[in-house]
Amino acid sequence: MLEALELLFFGAIGITSFALARAAASELTLSQWRALVVVGRTDGIRVGDVAARVGISMPAASRLLRRLERRGYVATARDESDRRATLVRLTAAGSRLRTAVIERRRALLNEALAAHASRLPKDLSGGLRVLGEAFDRYE
Predict the structure, then answer these.
(1) Full residue range of the structural domain in which residue 66 is found
(2) Dist. CA 64–CA 133, nearest whole Å
(3) Domain with 55 in it: what CATH number?
(4) For the chain, how many structural domains are there in total?
(5) Which of helix, strand or coil describes residue 85?
(6) pTM for the model
(7) Would you state the torsion angle of the CA atoms of residues 22, 96, 71, 138, taken in this order, to the nearest 10 degrees?
């Protein structure tokens, strides 16, 4: 089962990279994309939390987020509840980019699945939901 999951995950990374290349107005690295996904799941997240969820150091996260801010995809502001912390939010442009990549990825997934629809088990959706819940802690 682990080999099948690895194959699935490698394919998912490939589809995501392909979607990024096709949908993004400018090139984004997978780490930058991951940061946009993480930031887009909240209404303000601390830089340290972005670093932890993306799996990079605080200085690396700060640099990555500054690059995204210069491109207009995120905005930063001091956390009013803790002035030492910085909160990050998606901008309208960042939200549009995130949506465009997700839509492109879904289209690619639909294409890939359509080619193998007859071979897919009927309960695939339920099984994938269980897997998604199992891996949710890695958001």
Answers:
(1) 2-138
(2) 28
(3) 1.10.10.10
(4) 1
(5) strand
(6) 0.80
(7) -80
